[in-house]
Amino acid sequence: MIALEQIHQLPLREKLLVMEAIWDDISGEEQNLEVPQWHKEVLDERERLLAEGKAQFVDWEDAKRQIDEATQ
What we know:
Blueprint: H1 4-9, H2 12-27, H3 37-51, H4 60-70
């Protein structure tokens, strides 16, 4: 097994390859992941608000800018 310290020492390209390998392994077990009920409720509520026109999507760049402005 690879130690965390070994990962920290890898070049970025190799870290990305390790991350992709881990993601590929995890994504194959998605059906075994239990989603908490409160996650489902939050998503259902957001979907309802979108359907009713009471919510809207925000461009990712705009969202990051808004977050930056709010934290300054």
